[in-house]
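ASSEMBLY PREDICTION REQUEST
Request ID: AP-0331
Submitted by: J.K., bench scientist
Number of chains: two
Total residues: 654
Priority: normal
Notes: Please return the full assembly, not individual chains.
Input sequences:
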Amino acid sequence: MTAPGARVRQWLVGRRLVRHTGWRPTDTLVRALGAGFALVVAGTVLHQLPLVLIGVPLLVSGLITPRPSGSPTVTPVRHAETVDSGGTGTVTVEVRPGDGAAFTAVRLPVTGRSGVGPVHLLPAAAGALRARIRWGHWGRSEYLRADHLLASDDGLFVYGPVVGRVAQHTVLPPIEPLPGASLPPRAAGLVGAHRSRRPGDGMELRDIRPFQQGDRLRRIDWRVSLRAAAARGGALVPGTLHVRERYAEADADLVLALDTTVDVDTDLARWSELGQRPDARRGGSLDLGVRAAASLAAAFLRQGDRVSYVDLVNARLGVPVGSGRRQLELVRHALVRSGERVTGGGEPVLRAGQVPLGATVIVLSPFLVDSLVDLTARAARRGNLVIAIDVLPEGLLADTATPWGDAVRTILLAEQRMRLAALADQGVLVLRRDAAASIGLLRRHREARRGVRR
Amino acid sequence: MNPPMNPPVPVGRGVSAWWLRVAVAVSGAAILGIPLLERPVVGLAVLVGLAVAGSVYAPASPAPAAAIVGAAVTVVLSGDDPLRPAVLAMIPAVHLFHVSCGLAGILPVHGRLHLVALRRPALRVLAVQGVTFVLAGVAAVLPTGRVPVVVEVFALVGLVVIALVALGPWREHAHTRGDGRSAGPGATMEAWGEGRRSGS
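STATUS: Completed
Returned structure:
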């Protein structure tokens, strides 16, 4: 037998629980029954028909609405965990509203936008709700959180609000089409997409020369050899045999080095907020760098080059050199991870071991610190072709909250110009962030440097 | 057994939930203005006006009830004929105010309202208004004058029965939760309105 104290405690717990779980009455029901009943009683007692007539609709609407039953469920359908920035897709949630529900209020994305979206008020019906969504800014993001609340007629009873499970996905950086350009070849593999300067087994003719010891017989050019023999009286004697020499075909390596020490946008007043955001600033230096890196990786991997990625601050986030479509996905995932770990600190490092011999190095940075200049110049001194891409956003805005805002901006830009000039003096090709235009200059720069390097 | 699932429904953009607040404001202006057209009762009108403003700001609060009761008292004080046009106009106006407050209370102000969701409440309002106006028609043809005591007693007994029926929804039931996740003490209507993470 239960003690009276325990029963009271149980009753109190039940009272508290019923306010938060299951179907429960709302202020609207209290108003419908309470105000409606009060008006009808007052009208009856006081013989005031207007009070009765005003109270009747409220009372009737409250009395004809049964308490809903059942346990509604709103279940999100699983979607791909990796999507491409700028693309579109659909998200789906399955709703089982239970008996007596009239409205489903559920948080869903708005068509054509990204993010979890606002709450939509829809009629309650068992079935799936489907919303089109645009995959927005690259990075890890929430795309669906089906918070939901179900309500009976006139909102007299509600179930919820229930916090939905968060669905996250990785939006990969977009790939902007870039014109192809040749990289310096490097005889790293037996085959490759580039013509090497060395003789080898490629397709392109390099020379026709007399046969030497060690030459393969299948390389003999019989037409030239017979012509040479005819010139010497028709006998195929030593010195008349000639072979066709071809160029070797080799791989080319590209190292994409991203500066993740800072992420700055055009508003100088907000630079101090660095590290307070989990994602990259839209249009900021990191955003520009990541987009350029993804596009460059795609362009060079597409033409068969080998690409690696180096996070200059978090070395563990790098991707070793590789080729093919899978390598592009690895690089894009690594770029997303790098974008999540910008803290405004750390010393940028580019070790010699991270750069294959003869590889082209592209450093993407706003070049706001001298250490990046030293790092880039050291890479150039090691004999690599180094390209520095400046990803500082254009049109910096001075901090208007301080009288020194304009002066700070001027000094900052002047210092950055000096750093870029110093890099150019070290033989580094300095380009603006417009990678599409920049990439076409690779060949010209390589040819200009060819005499120096080889 | 689970009910059959309907085909997937594409969710469009809908309209801004602010329109529900506009509906509350318009119907509130009606219940405030109709009695004033007959005979201005300034003090009560100010109170009703404040309650209507409070209803627009917080529709899921006691403010709409105060507005409704205040408006009903105002209309009683504004004239003598119980079935004059102002009273007949107040009946649907108060009902619409009540319903629009009810719907605005379940949708955050930055939410999206899909007009198809209003079809069922519209039909329901029409049905209830039909019942009410039938009642008003019956009242109009009944003889006026002193009401017999027996009728008064029957009316009061009927009200008690209605009160007992009306108390039914407050009976407490333990319900299981939908997907096993608690709405939790933090999952309040306020948190719902703000779209914040809440609960466990």
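REVIEWER COMMENTS: The longest helix of chain A spans residues 405-425.
SIGN-OFF: pending second reviewer
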